[in-house]
Structures are given as C-alpha cells and as structure tokens.
Write a structure and sequence with these properties.
This is Reverse transcriptase/retrotransposon-derived protein RNase H-like domain-containing protein. The protein has 2 helices and 6 strands. By secondary structure, the chain is α+β, with helices and mostly antiparallel strands. It has one domain: Ubiquitin-like (UB roll) (Roll). Strands 5-2-1-6 form a 4-stranded mixed beta sheet. The protein has a two-stranded antiparallel sheet with strand order 3-4. The model has no long low-confidence stretch (mean pLDDT 86).
C-alpha cells in the first residue's frame, strides 16, 4: 500500500469511528449550507465553524431531508439543486442571516 492509500484509509476509519460534532447554533458566526439533491430526495445540512481549543472545527447544526414528489421527478440536476435550496429556505430558515452555500 502506498502512503496515500494509508492516509485515505485512516481518514475514512476516523470519520466512521468518531461521533460527528453537533453544535448549538451561534448566530454570531457565519453558517454554511450544504445541499444535496438526487432522483430520490433532497437533503441539506447547516454547519458552523466555531473556534474550539484554539482551532476552527466545523460541526453540524442540523440536518433535513425529504423525498421528491412525483411532479419533481422529471427535473434536471440544476433544477433539483435549486429546488433543494428554495425548499430549505422556505421551510427551515429561523432567521435571515449570512449563509455560505456549498
């Protein structure tokens, strides 16, 4: 095995064996919204990057998902991603604030 493969394996092992960092929202720091859409459903994750132990550490604030409707099944990839963004902002935004989209 090459060093690159060993490092990749260790990264995967660490991700699978450590609990994800779940955060209470801090409205004083920017947020990142990760969206995902596929033929079966829509999903989004809101993340923030607070400073923990003098290091920035990204963690999740919340996750959401839903199945797509029959009328949405024919949408293309770009339309699905935009649908996911609009759906999240319409239904799950508590307060309008600065959010970086990923």
């Amino acid at each position: 095995m090459t060093q690159e493969r060993i490092e990749a394996y260790e990264k995967i092992r660490k991700a699978l064996t450590e609990a994800p960092l779940i955060l209470m929202p801090d409205w004083n720091i920017p947020s990142k919204l990760y969206i995902y859409a596929c033929g079966d459903g829509l999903g989004a994750a809101l993340h923030q990057v607070p400073i923990i132990d003098d290091k920035p550490k990204e963690g999740s604030v919340c996750y959401i998902s839903r199945q797509i409707k029959a009328t949405e099944a024919s949408y293309g990839a770009s339309q699905m991603e935009f649908l996911c963004l609009v759906w999240h902002l319409r239904n799950h935004t508590i307060i309008f604030r600065e959010v970086f989209l990923k």
